[in-house]
Amino acid sequence: MKNLKNWMLFFVMVITSTSAFSQNKVTGTVIDGELNMSLPGATVLVKGTQNGVSTDANGVFTLDVNNDKGEVVLSFIGYQSKTVAFKVDANKVANLGNIVLNPDENMLEDIVIMGVADVAKDRKTPVAVSTIKAAEIQEKLGSQEFPEILNTTPSVYASKGGGGYGDSNINIRGFDQRNVAVLINGMPVNDMEGGAVYWSNWAGLSDVTSAMQVQRGLGSSKIAISSVGGTINVLTRTSDAREGGSISAGVGTGDYFKGLASYNTGVLENGLSASILLGYTRGSGYVEGTGFEGYNYYLGLGYKSKDSRHNVQFTFTGAKQDHDQRSTSVSIENIQKWNNGKMNKRFNPDTGFYNGERFNFKSNYYNKPVMSINYDFNINETWTLGAVFYGSWGRGGGTGTIGGGPNGYRDFGTEVRDANGHMRFDDIAAWNRGEIVEDWKEIKDKQPVGPGTSNSLMDDPNNPGQQGYYITDFDNKTKAYRGGWARRSSINSHDWYGTVINMNAKVNENWTVDFGLDGRIYKGYHYQLLDNLMGADGFYVAKNKNNNNQHYVVNQVYDAKASLNPWVNWNNREKVGYHNDGNVKWLGGFGQVEYSKDDLSVFVQGAISNQWMQRVDYFNYDRSTAEGAKDYKTDWESILGGSIKGGANYNIDENHNVFVNSGYFSRQPFMNNGVYLNNTNTLNPDLTNEKIFGLEAGYGYRSHKLRANLNLYRTSWKDRVTRATGKVQDKGVDGSIVTANGYATLVGVEQIHTGMEMDFIYYPVDRLTITGSFSWGDWHYGSNVTGTYYNEETNQPIYNEPGQPESGFKTHTLYIDGAKVGGAPQLIANLGAGYEIAKGLKIDANYRYNDNFYGTLVVTDAKEEGKNGSMKLPAFNLFDAGLSYRMELGKEKQNALTMRFNVNNVFDTTYISSARTNIEATPTSTTWKGVDVRNEVMLGAGRTWNFTMRFNF
Questions:
Q1: Are the CB atoms for 245 and 189 separated by under 8 Å?
Q2: 310-330 in b/e burial notation, b at 16+ Cβ within 10 A?
Q3: Residue 799: predicted pLDDT
Q4: Could you read off the pLDDT of 500-541 as tens digits, one per residue?
């Protein structure tokens, strides 16, 4: 008993002594220097430690400290950090009074970051990073595509793609957007089957974005994601943003109009909050025949407990959109031929007129809302839980042609276009109805014969009572009737559910530990429907092997329009072309250890993930047979992957810092043509993970006048999978030698990307800001690769001598060693300036130069030594300018009216934004700016303008 009392006394003494040593307190109130109000949620840390607190709703803080004197660092996202010295008095208290934090124009602004979003911190997180605030997005984006706002950041190239609404592409450090991880509040959004990001599905995202941060390279995200080139972390508004609202309207080139209204309640006394935003956009498009209409919506509901331990945010956001497209690349010579010798940037070969109205074979429609619940729980002074639970329901697809075409013509051919290069839709419909089109000759042995021939009558094979159909069909060569075209919809819908849970522990003043899990379940629905029969009576389906091998005619059509109902079920509609599901399950775990003391911060991360993939094909396998019933649904293919990353940042002094990071990523290949081949259930026999290794070093300088960064990087990406196609000789079913479509899956492709990046912001005099960036890269392929040819119809390997295994497999070699990686300029320079002419009146401009730009690798052009399929495109420069005016209103100047006028590509520069072919010019070639005119290209947008007026209250 005595020993027990002694232990209890000892325990009390320890607790008492510990309390005595930590009785020193630092107190104060943090003030918003812009609004002259208290600043709740600001962070107060003892310098060089993890010991810290957050200010309460009144901006007040009390921090327990061990020492009698020292320094505290006060910070808040979007504001300049401040270091303040303290010294406790006789009462062991240091009262710092009011401490003013001023807004930082170059950091995140007015956002609430929930626990799972990995946001890089300046002079602490050792990664190359650029941040775009909501104010800059609202000011400069205008009618541009959302990714284009990033064009002034190093190593980023964003283009409008074909020019349709939301059809933009982004490339970071030479890697396309399938290999750039996109996160929204920490939630991954890259397609789980192919890694793609369709920006048209996020058409309203710019309106609800509080900030967008680009982390180039492997980044700081703790979960295992596709961050080969970088990570784009979009942070959206939350319901606990400060009270207020806005109304805006904008107009621009191509009948552009956008209206928007939003309101935030702010956090009420009971801890509840709400936010709502509604928007509408429409226009005829800069490119002809690319009209669009979109609705976007956002609802946020939140609750924050009075003790700030619990913070719950519910969000539901999305955008319904319909838009016509330009997706066919056209040769330069045909662009000139169809436009009186001019390079018409608005020209669209996919559009035309049908029954007197504008019509387009190519369009896109989608509605993809995301619902999420974010929860932050401050368990105690050591432990914090952050979690997000989310669901996404995508409904929609894209349209195009289906059928063999009149007399076998291709939909990108010149035969089906008029003198202006537009589709002859009325003639296509007339041909489908059985009428004669004089100049569409029947083709035999590649020569036209006879007068213009028309579609042929056919009986419905499944319904003897239905005779004399004019139908369209895939195969126009082996049937008595001749192909034709209908317009089809290719549905790419999905249901996606997931969660990211993170536990954070502040072990002591210097050490922090994070660990958690990332779980996802995804089901993709893929099939084709008829949208417009174009004058025909039906479509002849011959590819559905699950219909007792019976051919049949489909005449039911469905409007290619997005539904406001995100849970609409289209799966029971009558299908043509193909029908399959893609199922993916994902379970990952991650952990991070971070050390911070004085001017040094170090982190090490590790993540592991397992993907299970399954493909279900309802068309290519006859389920009435035992073999088909077994093969139509694959087993779950389990693939393990993971990553390890680490880095360190050292602040040399208040002006200079250096950092280094490195990481290795073993990434599972994409499901489409990576795990399963040729859009079938055939498993890739050479299945292997892709290997990414990155190394990066950087230097930063911060002063009152200048902020600058310099980065060096090298990324190696090995064991990529690509695909080559071609005509090959094979043995037919009857034993004869036939010409077949073949494909080769090429495993082991390597890309090596090295480069240098620099960016700066300079304030030479009051009211003048100069910005700039420069990036240089050397992105090339690392070796030649070889793959075996397979018959596209049977998925069986093809022999060098058809039907003779002893002759060995027929192979395809890509001679790409040293070939340049295309898709983005490898040299980009930006120089911009902004000047405040008078209070509230500002003018700004930016010049951008792009060079060392190569076309996309064409595998068919890399089949011989010395012809590696990469062609250099012309350099180009673009100049953008803008004028804005902000007028403060109200007695306390709490309201504001903002007007903004933007002009993009001021000098209407004509340039190639992408190339589909790589025909090298010779001394005898006809060229445009050094490019052989036979090359098929996309032209970038010319001069565009937009004007926006916004009222904030």
A1: no
A2: ebbbbbebbbbbbbbbbbbbb
A3: 84
A4: 999 999 999 899 999 999 999 999 999 999 999 999 888 888
CB-CB contact of 501 with 436 (8 Å)? no
Picking from 410, 543, 413, the residue whose alpha carbon sits closest to that of residue 473 is: 543
Answer for the pair 454, 431: CB distance below 8 angstroms, yes or no.
Answer: yes
Give me the mean pLDDT over the 855-872 stretch.
74
Distance CA 92, CA 609 (A): 50
The answer to whether the beta carbons of residues 156 and 172 sit under 8 Å apart is yes
Residue 604 near residue 645 (C-beta atoms within 8 A): yes
Q: Hey, how many other C-beta atoms are within 10 angstroms of the C-beta on 15?
A: 10
Q: Are 224 and 607 in contact (CB under 8 A)?
A: yes
User: Smallest Cα–Cα separation from 713: which of 693, 735, 727, 734?
Assistant: 693
The residue count of the chain comes to: 953
Residue 222 pLDDT: 86
Average pLDDT value for residue range 289-304? 95
Q: How far apart, in Å, are the Cα atoms of 476 and each of 299, 542, 549, 688?
A: 51, 12, 19, 39
Per the CB < 8 A criterion, the answer to whether 27 and 20 are in contact is no
Q: What is the pLDDT of residue 409?
A: 83
Mean pLDDT (whole number) for 428-442: 82
In contact, 308 and 54? CB cutoff 8 Å? yes
Asked if 300 and 237 touch (Cβ cutoff 8 Å), the reply is yes
Burial-class residue 907 by CB neighbours within 10 Å (0-12, 13-18, 19+): exposed
**Per-residue pLDDT band at 40 (split at 50, 70, 90):** low
DSSP 3-state percent helix, strand, coil across the chain (nearest 5): 5, 55, 40
Cβ–Cβ < 8 Å for 815, 860? no
Using CA of residue 211, residue 217, residue 221, residue 225, what is the dihedral sign?
Answer: positive
**pLDDT by residue (tens digit) across 781-795?**
998 888 887 787 777
pLDDT at 614: 98
Q: What pLDDT shows up at residue 6?
A: 47
Reported for 416-420, long-range contacts at CB under 8 A and 24+ positions apart, including other chains, are 417/338, 417/349, 418/352, 419/338, 420/338, 420/339
CA-CA distance, 881 to 218, in Å (whole number)?
A: 33
Task: Give the CA distances from residue 385 to residues 380, 410, 943, in Å, rounded to whole numbers and listed in that order.
Answer: 10, 57, 49
Q: How far apart are CA 365 and CA 512, in angstroms?
A: 46
Mean pLDDT of 884-896: 84
Residue 104 tokens read as: 């930082």
pLDDT in tens, 16-38: 443 444 479 999 998 877 556 66
How does pLDDT run across 568-577, given as a tens digit for each residue?
Answer: 999 999 999 8
**Phi, psi torsion values for 121, nearest 5 degrees:** -110, 135
Q: Which of 136-150, 567-581, 827-841 has the lowest mean pLDDT?
A: 136-150
Alpha-carbon distance of 56 to 403, in angstroms, equals 66
Pick from 161, 397, 145: nearest CA to 283: 145
Q: If you search the block for the tokens 């009576």, which residue do you land on? A: 537
- Which pairs count as long-range contacts for 764-771, CB under 8 Å and 24+ apart, including other chains? 764/705, 767/835, 767/836, 768/833, 768/834, 768/835, 768/836, 769/833, 769/834, 769/835, 770/831, 770/832, 770/833, 771/152, 771/830, 771/831, 771/832, 771/833, 771/834, 771/846
First-to-last alpha carbon distance for the chain, in angstroms, is: 70
d(CA 690, CA 777): 22
State the Cα–Cα distance between residues 844 and 680, nearest whole angstrom. Answer: 53
Token pair, residue 518, equals: 């990332």
Instruction: Write out the two tokens for 512.
Output: 């922090």
CA angle at 149 for the pair 145 and 150, rounded to the nearest 5°: 120
